[in-house]
Amino acid sequence: MEEIYQNTESILRYIVEFSTLLLEFFGICILVFTAVKCFIFWIKRDESIRLHLAQGIALALEFKLGGEVLRTVVVREWAELGILGAIILLRATLTFLIHWEIKNEKKALEPKSDIEENKKS
């Protein structure tokens, strides 16, 4: 019975570690893709660059936050759990602030798009 428990624990640890790495990788890919896309927008002098950048960063942080939450499944020590808790709190705070920035940036861009539509009419 002990052997089954250890094998199951090893399989679970492997799945969680692989899933964590996958989520972290997705977050990094999204962040790099967003940075390149926003650099191109910056070259074109696009007004919505801040909004696109904030949305990409928020999405990347959410993937990385998911990886950290998964990592808590296999934590064995309280000190490690405390560190993970601090990382999760920091990333959640950053995500909240970025979503707040996105909301404000959308409000700032709305009058500009209304003015541009009135000029076209």
Characteristics of this structure?
121 residues, mainly alpha
Architecture overview:
It is elongated, with a radius of gyration of 20 Å. Helices cover 89% and strands 0% of the residues. The chain has helices spanning 2-43, 49-71, 78-120. The protein starts with a helix and ends with a helix. By secondary structure, it is mainly alpha-helical. The model has no long low-confidence stretch (mean pLDDT 89). It contains 3 helices and no strands.
Q: Which ranges are low-confidence, i.e. pLDDT below 50, for 5 or more consecutive residues?
A: none
Label the structural class. mainly alpha
End-to-end separation: 76 Å
Secondary-structure element sequence? HHH
Chart the SSEs and their pairings.
Layout: H1 2-43, H2 49-71, H3 78-120
Helix pairs in contact: 1-2, 2-3
What's the short version?
This protein is mostly helical.
